[in-house]
Amino acid sequence: MMPLMLSIVMAQMPKQAPFLVRPLVSIIASTTMSVFVRPRLVESFGFVEKQLAGKEFFVGGGLTGADSEFLSRAGCLARGPRIACEAALTDVLSGQS
Known about the structure:
The structure is a single chain. Helix content is 71%, strand content 0%. The radius of gyration is 16 Å and the shape is elongated. α1 (2-16) runs antiparallel to α2 (22-52) and α2 (22-52) packs parallel to α4 (86-93). It has helices at residues 2-16, 22-52, 65-79, 86-93.
């Protein structure tokens, strides 16, 4: 879940930066997102999609701790701040990556 946390941090950095350095911080955050975070998110969510292909649950035929852990983290993202990698996540989840 490190890429998810980094995406939240990178989205907040420009908003929290002092006015004079905000453009520089914005460039650094967006470059970090495009070079490091987005590719790892695509890879991670691609793995999840592959594991769930043809199945309803991660492990076995019913709801387990793995499913609830993933759902709780996904729920936090849905309620949390808009992250800069929203388009990448949408592409991965729709199978367009």
